[in-house]
Each structure stands twice: as structure tokens, then as C-alpha cells.
């Protein structure tokens, strides 16, 4: 008999081409998490795709698979980084660190892949440091350009990297925040980095740590836009194939627990591998990241969380309590669609991003309003969808407490605060 956590799948690993047969978590079907619905299209229906994450038993890379091409996903994108105050502060601190600790100065050339609306490069610009943003989404790239951030609107890979290298020059620093998970052709992407990076250049990348995803039950961070979910072991092995080494790593609180890796060529002796890299690899090995059985218990934990959350919401609705949402993040749409939460539980949600206001969440069709809507309706509970920003959000709308309102935080386990 086949193990319950193992299913047959014709997909191939996007890294090593091995067959993907081992389930990490099956979240059913869902529309693209950033495919917000315009009012005039409310009755047109949406395409749902399998949201089934597998783990490769050869390279241990957790992945969803490429059900939708990145060009379709990012043709019209609604995520703008500048609407999170804490994320802007995070970006500013990063620029100061690279300036003070790594000698990035006015003689350097900095390239950010997936530069979004210029949220980070604007701080390098203020320092007078030459910059270039690379952003695939046309509507987002336009906002960056309007801010005066030099931006190329294209998908990054080996072919486009060659064009950029000819048009500009080799980069002293290449950075990417939450981009490595978004490129299905990961080896082509790294080949492009190799072409654009200077001989003594360095790169930094941030991504949610698979360790945190598993230990803190962050299943809602899985969606079609994220093809991969990395441990340090897996991403280090991929870079190593391309003659690159991870020479340092930092643990971050962003997105529920991320890591920032520092990468350079193996031939670059200016940077020796930090003890922190070996320590994190050792922790992952002890946890079982090189044992396929380690990954198989996650699916059941996720099902239990769904049951617990629905029981909580059902109980509140039986008491005639009003519930509204805060935020319209990708993770929230995964959560709502997997749990089957619609307007029978959540009346509406709000978001600071005006590009989302007036639209409806994908799948659940919950309407999105300006945050002022909460003051108008005075709900009993506010369901925080971007739970990684719960402290920032509860501070922003602390007035909810004035009428006795409370907050619901769904991850890692549903709680009322």
C-alpha cells in the first residue's frame, strides 16, 4: 500500500529533474494569489490550479511546480513593497549595512533583481550609489521609474543578463529579496547572475526559511507565485553547482522567519565561509532535512489547523459576531481558499494599497476597502491575514479596542488577541 503522504505525480523536479512523488502538503486548488477580481468581472469565474507542494527525494527541494508561467503571473501585479512601514525600515537598514560593512559606495554598481517599486534602491540612490532595478511587472516598474529609479522591465535570466552586462557593466553587488522562490528556471537564473556579477562582486538574497515554515506551520506562504521553499542546504547545493559559495548567513524576523545569504564566487578569497553557515547546516541536518520522512508529517498538521480555524470562526458566527479582515496578501488568499472561508465568515477586508481597494480577493471574492471602513462598521473581530505584520497592524488600528474589538491571528495556530 502506498504511504498516505506519497502520491504519483508526473512532475519533474525543477532543479535536478528527478520525479516528484513525495507530498509535502496538498492545499487543494486555488487561483493565483495576486489575481484580484475587478467589479465588472465578479461573475466571470476564475481559473483554479492545483496547489500541491512536493519534496524531491534526490535534492530535497520543496516545490509547487510550474502550473502557470511567470509571465502570466507578473503581467499585472498588485504587490507594492512600499506600503509596509516595517519593510521600508528593513530595506533602509540593509543599505546602511552594505555601505558600512561591505564598502558599497559611490564607485560601486548595485543591481536589484525584482526591484518592485524602488522601495530599497531609493536608499542607495540617496547615498549617490549607482543603481539599476530589474522588475518584470510593467505596472510596478512604472512606479519605480516615476521615482527616478533606473529600471529595466524584463524577466531576469541568462539571456537578459547578457544584454544587461553589455548595456551597463558588471555588478559589485546584486541583491534580491524574495525572488529565488519566484523563478522556476532556477539554474538559468543563477547562470544569469554569474554573467552579471563582477569577479570580486557579492550577492545577497533573502527568502523565507523552510525551517520556520515547517516549525511555525506557515503553510499559507505556499502559493503558485512561489515555486520553491528553501533550506540552507538546498540553496547552497544549487549555488555550488554554479561555482558559487554562501559565505555568510543571517537570520531575520521578516515574513515570519527568513534568512539572508551572502554569496560570491568560490574563487573569491576575499570572503571566507563564516561559522554561521556550518552551524545552520548542522541544525538543518539534525532536524532531518536530509531525510524524506521528515517532510511527511507536515500535511496532517496543516489539516488540523484548518479544522481548528473553522471551528473558531463557526463558534463566533453562532454568537452573531461580526468579523472583517485586514490585508490582502498572497498568504491570506492561500489560507482563505484552502479553508473555504468566504463572505459567510468575513464581511470584507481592508488594505492600505490603493491598487487593491475596490477589487475582490481571488477565489473567496471578499471585497477590499480602505482601512477607514473598520472605523465605520466597528466589527467585533479583525482577522489579520498578513500575520507576519500583526504587531504593526494592531498598532495601526489599535482604536479597534475602543469598542471592545479583538484580533484573530491564524498562524501558527488560530488565536484571539
UniProtKB/TrEMBL annotation:
Coiled coil: none annotated. One of its GO terms (biological process) is methylation. It comes from the Bacteria. Keywords: Methyltransferase, Transferase. Gene3D superfamilies: 6.10.250.3100, Methyltransferase, zinc-binding domain (6.20.50.110), NAD(P)-binding Rossmann-like Domain (3.40.50.720), Vaccinia Virus protein VP39 (3.40.50.150). Residues 254-412 form the C-methyltransferase domain. One of its GO terms (molecular function) is methyltransferase activity. InterPro entries: Methyltransf_Zn-bd_dom_put, Methyltransf_Zn-bd_dom_put_sf, MeTrfase_14, SAM-dependent_MTases_sf. Residues 13-74 form the Methyltransferase putative zinc binding domain. It holds the Pfam family Methyltransf_23. This is Methyltransferase domain-containing protein. It comes from Fodinibius roseus. The lineage of its organism: Bacteria, Pseudomonadati, Balneolota, Balneolia, Balneolales.
